[in-house]
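Researcher: Sequence recovery benchmark, item below. Answer with residues only.
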């Protein structure tokens, strides 16, 4: 919006139109000549609107498939807003289960942000995974309170029961194993979660029985 003043009656108003030559005074209906400086601003604004409209039409004209279509759906949900990159990645993580390399590249392309920025966020936050997760996600807390109460023994028992190391997935795709710096439940340590369900005051001998409940 730009401010115009009527040369006839002196009335001032906020002009939101796109005509860069003349505007009609809302009070006296006099044709007001738009100053050259303001006219150039309106011209650029009109061009920007036309370019955005054309880009939107071109995007819709291309029928996306596979990963590109999945990314496009998430990106459009957040109106191609670069500041919503984390939310877009979370949306894709929920939909797909993990974030493959070609998906991150497509996010970079469709949002027009550097791929390095996308990778930085995807690797920084624990909520994201760059590899497939198992059907059930196990997290063993390795915070100070849990370590003192025997978290390392819990982790060792889980690894032996499933025959995997941390950050790995079982051969049948049933379990993934991660460690966490803190699961926010320090008093009843040690703590382990399976799909977000908490198991507290845990003993190594209880691990196998807990895992057997998950098919």
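Model:
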């Amino acid at each position: 919006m730009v401010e115009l003043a009527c040369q006839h009656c002196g009335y001032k108003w906020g002009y939101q139109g796109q005509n860069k030559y003349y505007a009609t005074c809302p009070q006296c209906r006099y044709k007001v000549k738009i100053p050259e400086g303001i006219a150039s601003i309106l011209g650029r604004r009109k061009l920007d609107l036309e370019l955005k409209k054309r880009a939107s039409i071109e995007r819709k004209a291309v029928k996306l498939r596979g990963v590109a279509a999945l990314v496009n759906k998430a990106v459009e949900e957040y109106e191609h807003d670069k500041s919503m990159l984390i939310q877009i990645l979370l949306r894709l993580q929920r939909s797909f289960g993990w974030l493959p390399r070609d998906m991150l590249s497509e996010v970079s392309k469709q949002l027009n942000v550097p791929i390095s920025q996308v990778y930085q966020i995807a690797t920084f936050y624990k909520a994201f995974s760059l590899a497939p997760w198992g059907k059930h996600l196990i997290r063993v807390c390795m915070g100070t309170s849990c370590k003192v109460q025997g978290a390392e023994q819990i982790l060792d028992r889980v690894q032996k029961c499933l025959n995997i190391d941390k950050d790995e997935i079982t051969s049948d795709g049933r379990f993934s194993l991660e460690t966490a710096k803190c699961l926010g439940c320090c008093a009843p340590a040690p703590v382990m979660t399976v799909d977000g369900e908490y198991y507290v005051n845990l003993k190594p001998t209880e691990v196998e029985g807990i895992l057997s409940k998950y098919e």
